[in-house]
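Closing statement on the SN-glycerol-3-phosphate sub-project.
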Amino acid sequence: MKLFVDTGNLKEIEPFAALGIIDGVTTNPSLMARESGDPRKILKQICELVQGPVSAEVVATDAAGMIREGRELAALDTHIVVKVPFTKDGVKACKTLASEGTRVNVTLIFSATQAWLAAKAGAAYVSPFVGRLDDIGTTGMNLIREIVDIFDNFDFTTEVLVASVRSPIHIVESARMGADVVTVPPAVIEQCFKHPLTDIGLAKFLKDWEQAQAAKV
Ligand code: G3P
């Protein structure tokens, strides 16, 4: 399963990119709004840093505007994946951009039928938002299971990119279900590194070793 970082902040991406564990980045208008500076310059810098798929979302809501903006974003860098929301205009824009060879990530997916239609429109990725489904008392991960099953049944090449990830549990369950990608906020990636028994175990290894060395003196 591929790991994307869900942020528009270069300084948040850098330490994970340096570890060599990052396969891509996803952004959205809310994430980019948090950053100062020219969004398109930031996106270009992220592409140069990560050298993997970087999702950049259009803000136009009409198909013609999405297509125009999508072409501009795609021209920034070969790593750009154009993100469009799942609306009829978004599906139309996806179909056109995909036919031109542009990779499209259809986002704000909340049902299996939306994911299925996005795949039929040629999406390279679909982004189901599991955390927001949990927020309203449904089980977001059930949607991932449905989408993975449907895509497997019909050999869709569209990748399931699990988004709105709120904990390592979402990551583990996504991997167990066979999702292609999980996009994770930096803070949740950090949580994946931590376990108290690892810290306790390492401390004991080092203490035992030091005591053994001291005994030899
Ligand atoms: O990639 C989509 C993600 O940024 C949305 O996450 O936590 O706002 O639902 P969240």
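The chain has one domain: 2-216. With this model delivered, the sub-project is considered complete and its resources will be redirected to Aim 3.
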